[in-house]
From TrEMBL:
Keywords: Iron, Metal-binding, Monooxygenase, Oxidoreductase
Iron among keywords: yes
Transmembrane segments: none
CDD domains: arom_aa_hydroxylase (cd00361)
Matches recorded under Pfam families: Biopterin_H
Name under which the protein is recorded: Aromatic amino acid hydroxylase
GO molecular function, one term: iron ion binding
Family stated for the protein in its record: Belongs to the biopterin-dependent aromatic amino acid hydroxylase family.
GO biological process: aromatic amino acid metabolic process
Domain named Biopterin-dependent aromatic amino acid hydroxylase family profile: residues: 1-340
């Protein structure tokens, strides 16, 4: 096992555990630690004024340190107290898996950390975003329940085949953007590819819509009033650039509603508008309203069509409670209703999320097909027939029978047996020597073996994934590309050593370091590095060494002149030091 487990993680199904990777804490460099420290000091200083009060409280409750990148083991010990856990993953994972982790009260944390060049914002998930953004807010019980419930509903959302393509494209962009030295034209090409995909998605899938809701709440949500909002979204809490930008009049504030599900977002740009919820409880209300539009609650013809369009493993549940899981390939419809459904490849049947004995993917390796609906000319549905009704209509063991359904599907064969649910209703009828037809089309032939006919007059639910997680081998996740770890040159290694020396000096591990020598080496060999001089300024200020302070400030002014883009970051760093020492 590559991680330290606990009672919450023990409950995770195996197919989710395949995404977990070790955090490898020792791989964080002193530069990484300095990036974390800068962002956290700036965030806590600023966000204590503009974030929801749960943020600052949550930092303490979840054990997030300002000075050190959080260690997952330490976080888990503290998160356990509020009923949550955290795991490390490699960047973006599929949306349905991400949601399912949430349903188990597990926070997914991308353990990499952004480069110094992307200190204000990165499209890639990183430990600043996840650890400093998501973790503190889940200490609020109402919000934590929203997050769990969101995961529970979200992992049932049906995706389209195009969603998977977009996910891979976004993951690719996030990887190359964070990889040191990626040519700009390669990044531009990846961004254009995403734009092209987004413009040609067609009708948005359930997963696309619920991801919009996730984005405008969990990632970029504001709370309070439109006139005086506070930040709670993790994307804003972890972006020192956007958390300031979003509070200006340049970003439109809109009262949160289900409309957010139909408002698309661009992960590569600052958001032009944000939604404001009055309180955390209202988030759950909108989520339930949205869930009422999903196939998991509406079923029907549209539900089965969504599953066919997804080209992925999904489940339908019939009115008897019988659940059919597989890749749905076809539906025959009549008068706006499904009258026959068909899967392709391994299919499993279940009842109440438990596979029926004798109906695994081994038994239905080539797929499964069945009529849906009521018998023609008979008012009572098969599922509502008692033993006497079934005998009267010759739906009985040993009887050779021809059943014609509304819509024209015919099932002709000899009944062997029936399977009942806990309520005593027939949910499955097994035939031998069976032929199934619809008009001139033969849907099943006697030489194919026994025919198992599902019983149910309608599809009450359709959703992503299997009914019984044990019915399928779900441990098949293939990450096509992993986060790129650049080979470091001697110049970079030297800079890391300087950062480490100053970190050790500040922490009292080694106070014999000559800070002046470090500054001279920076001027000579690393003239564009601004973060370490800011840390040196902090130490000079603490020692009240005014001459050294002045020399550092002059060096920082030169950097600002040569690279105006980092000017505000330097100014903010100096202000943080000055303010902290005054207070």
């Amino acid at each position: 096992m590559s991680y330290e487990s606990n009672p919450i993680l023990d409950k995770l199904p195996k197919h989710l555990k395949q995404f977990i990777k070790p955090q490898n804490y020792e791989e964080y460099t002193a530069i990484d630690q300095a990036v974390w420290r800068y962002v956290m000091r700036k965030n806590v200083d600023y966000l204590s004024k503009v974030a929801h009060k749960s943020y600052v409280d949550g930092l303490k409750k979840t054990g997030i340190s300002i000075d050190h990148i959080p260690n997952m083991y330490g976080m888990n010990r503290i998160l356990k107290e509020i009923g949550w856990a955290a795991v490390a993953v490699d960047g973006f994972i599929p949306p349905s898996a991400f949601m399912e982790f949430q349903a188990y009260n597990v926070l997914v944390i991308a353990s990499d950390i952004r480069q110094l060049e992307n200190i204000e914002y990165t499209p890639a998930p990183d430990i600043i975003h996840e650890g400093a953004g998501h973790a503190p807010i889940i200490a609020n019980p109402e919000y934590a329940e929203y997050l769990r419930r969101f995961g529970e509903i979200g992992c049932k959302a049906i995706s389209s085949a195009k969603d998977y393509e977009l996910y891979n494209a976004v993951r690719h962009l996030s990887i190359i953007k964070e990889a040191h030295g990626t040519p700009q034209n390669e990044i531009d090409e990846a961004e254009k590819h995403i734009e092209h995909l987004q413009e040609n998605m067609g009708e948005p899938s359930e997963m696309a819509l619920i991801r919009n809701l996730h984005w405008w709440t969990v990632e970029y949500g504001l709370i309070g009033t439109v006139e005086n909002p506070k930040i709670y979204g993790a994307g804003l809490l972890s972006s020192i650039g956007e958390s300031t930008w979003c509070m200006t009049d340049k970003v439109k504030k809109i009262p949160y509603s289900i409309e957010a599900a139909h408002t698309e977002f661009d992960i590569t740009k600052p958001q032009p508008q944000l939604f404001v919820t009055p309180d955390f409880a209202f988030l759950s209300q909108v989520l339930e309203d949205f869930a009422n539009t999903m196939a998991v609650r509406t079923g029907g013809l549209s539900g089965i069509k969504k599953l066919i369009g997804s080209k992925a493993l999904g489940t339908i549940e019939l009115s008897t409670g019988l659940q059919i899981s597989g890749e749905f390939s076809n539906v025959i419809e009549n008068d706006g209703k499904p009258i026959y459904i068909q899967t392709t490849g391994g299919t499993a049947l279940a009842y109440r999320e438990k596979e029926l004995v004798g109906h695994s993917t081994d038994h239905h390796a080539e797929g499964f097909g069945s009529p849906i609906g009521k018998l023609k000319g008979i008012n009572i549905a098969i599922e509502n027939m008692g033993p006497r009704d079934l005998k009267a209509y010759k739906i009985y063991e040993g009887e050779q029978i021809a059943l014609e359904f509304e819509g024209g599907v015919k099932v002709e064969g000899t009944i062997i047996t029936g399977t009942r649910n806990l309520m005593g209703e027939i949910i499955l009828i097994t035939f031998e020597n069976c032929t199934v037809t619809h008009g001139d089309k033969v849907l099943f032939q006697p030489e194919w073996g026994l025919y198992h006919m599902a019983v149910g007059q309608k599809i009450v639910s359709a959703y992503n994934g299997p009914a019984d997680l044990n019915s399928f081998n779900l441990i098949s996740h293939q990450i096509t590309e992993t986060t790129i770890k650049s080979k470091k040159d001697e110049e970079r290694l030297q800079l890391e050593r300087f950062y480490e020396q100053i970190r050790h000096f500040r922490e009292g591990k080694n106070t014999t370091i000559s800070r002046n020598k470090v500054l001279q080496a920076l001027k000579k060999d690393h003239p564009q590095d601004w973060l370490l001089p800011v840390e040196l300024y902090e130490l000079a200020k603490q020692d009240n060494n005014q001459e050294f302070q002045q020399e550092i400030l002059e060096h920082l002014e030169n950097i600002k002149r040569d690279n105006p883009k980092v000017g505000h970051l330097i100014d903010d760093g100096i202000e943080l030091v000055d303010t902290a020492l005054v207070s």
